[in-house]
Design brief:
Elements lengths: L2 H8 L6 E2 L1 H18 L3 E9 L9 H17 L5 E6 L2 E7 L3 H20 L4 E9 L6 H17 L1 H4 L7 H10 L7 E7 L7 H16 L5 E9 L6 H5 L6 E8 L11 E4 L8 E8 L3 E9 L3 E7 L2 H14 L8
Parallel strand pairs: 1-3, 7-8, 8-9
Antiparallel strand pairs: 2-4, 2-5, 3-4, 6-12, 7-10, 10-11, 11-12
Length: about 325
């Protein structure tokens, strides 16, 4: 971008929105500070997409970038620093923010950027990275966030437009069509199938074992079924001890919920839970989701995934559907 275009681009930008040089220097300083004091910080990368070879400094697209910059600066905290990473990338530096805090920031910015996208002015993919787990310096964090942007575009969540659909529509879609792949696959279980219904219980126990194997690791885990008392993991939970992962049990509130230990009941009397059961698990290292639809004849059509983009999206949609706290751990 030449000098004249840089000058034109700078006009109309918010006062708290900085150029790439300032952002890069500030990011280096934040990495040094976090290293010295053994703290964390995160970056959120907003990759502007969908405009081919259009120069982002020209015409309507330039105005769209300025509108997005204003939305970003209005959405972040006073201590956060926002600006350009390059012509098609905006970045926000989040001091003292861990992995789960950055996910909340991504959610907030995604909602805010959606206002611009709905006007047809631009589309954006928003990803994050956290120091030191995702990189030892600011440049490495940006590279990790950029890699996640590419992975997000390839995710079922983006490719099938699930992000624009309602929670129960997504659940029906995932359990109603065959998937075969490394990250996403379908299977049948129950009467007359190679896999019995106890295979589903076994999966849920394995997920809980993963949580109990590292009780100090933060995360979030949802088990949903017809009724809370019918969840087979209750016994294991009652002897699990203290867990940093937040475990939630979703279903009809039968029985004495005060007796549930190491988990928080979420009483829901929703008829759709009589037809579907699901498990969502996410921590900073991995994600897993299991969705099963009960059919006639005691059989289940199931889908499971290890795609963290899809898992995080499902959790976000579920929390939004029932106005639950946006909790990731």
């Amino acid at each position: 971008m030449d000098i004249d275009r840089k000058t034109a681009f700078a006009r109309g930008l918010p006062g708290r929105f900085y150029d790439a040089y300032f952002i890069n220097e500030y990011g280096k300083i934040e990495a040094l500070r976090s290293t010295r004091y053994n703290t964390c910080f995160s970056v959120v990368l907003i990759t502007v997409d969908g405009h081919g070879d259009v120069d982002p400094s020209e015409g309507a697209h330039l105005e769209s970038i300025k509108a997005l910059a204003k939305v970003v600066t209005d959405s972040v905290r006073n201590c956060d620093v926002a600006g350009m990473a390059c012509d098609r990338e905006l970045v926000v530096i989040l001091p003292e923010t861990d992995y789960f805090g950055s996910l909340i920031a991504v959610r907030k910015l995604t909602k805010a950027a959606g206002q611009i996208a709905r006007k047809g002015r631009l589309s954006a993919v928003i990803t994050q990275a956290t120091f030191p787990r995702d990189g030892k310096g600011f440049g490495e964090l940006l590279s990790t966030a950029a890699k996640r942007a590419r992975e997000r575009k390839e995710s079922v969540w983006e490719r099938q437009g699930l992000k624009d659909r309602l929670f129960w529509e997504i659940i029906g879609e995932l359990s109603g069509r065959p998937y075969s792949g490394f990250d996403n696959s379908s299977f049948e279980a129950g009467s007359g199938q190679d896999l019995t219904e106890f295979f589903i219980d076994g999966i849920n126990e394995l997920v809980l074992n993963e949580v109990m194997r590292a009780p100090q690791k933060r995360g979030v885990l949802y088990y949903a079924s017809k009724s809370i008392s019918s969840l087979p993991v209750l016994k294991a939970l009652n002897s699990a001890g203290a867990l940093a992962t937040r475990v939630f049990l979703v279903g009809e509130p039968d029985g004495n919920l005060s007796e549930v230990k190491s988990a928080t009941p979420i009483p829901l009397d929703d008829p759709r839970l009589k037809e579907f059961l699901f498990t969502f698990f996410l921590n900073e290292d991995s994600g897993y989701a299991l969705v099963c639809k009960e059919n006639w004849g005691a059989t289940f059509s199931c889908f499971h995934t290890a795609d963290p983009v899809l898992v995080e999206g499902l959790i976000s949609k579920f929390q939004g559907e029932y106005s639950l706290q946006e909790n990731f751990g």
